[in-house]
Q: What sequence folds into this?
């Protein structure tokens, strides 16, 4: 059964929402690390990782739909934006982890 336009939009907005939340959590982690609160920084990274995993799963479901569909998904601006959000969340996570480590070293 092919995905409907409504289901595609819902999946994309879910992907955007989880990715955006993850990115915010990762940036919050950097702020905590900057102030020396490493337990809170690590908690924020963990929350971000959970949000990112949800976004990743939503993305995976869309990819599976693409593979299993005869016609494939219609490429839409929303899907492109959703995938961009996912990629930005991953980049932000990597940057946040590096900055937290840097602040940890500076605190010693």
A:
């Amino acid at each position: 059964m092919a995905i409907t336009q409504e289901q595609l939009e819902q999946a994309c907005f879910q992907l955007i929402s989880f990715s955006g939340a993850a990115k915010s959590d990762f940036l919050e982690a950097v702020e905590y690390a900057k102030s020396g609160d490493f337990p809170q920084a690590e908690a924020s990274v963990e929350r971000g990782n959970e949000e990112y995993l949800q976004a990743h799963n939503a993305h995976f479901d869309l990819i599976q739909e693409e593979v299993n569909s005869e016609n494939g998904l219609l490429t839409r601006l929303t899907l492109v934006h959703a995938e961009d959000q996912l990629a930005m969340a991953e980049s932000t996570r990597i940057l946040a982890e590096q900055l937290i480590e840097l602040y940890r070293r500076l605190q010693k």
About this structure: The two ends are 58 Å apart (CA to CA). The chain has a mean pLDDT of 89.
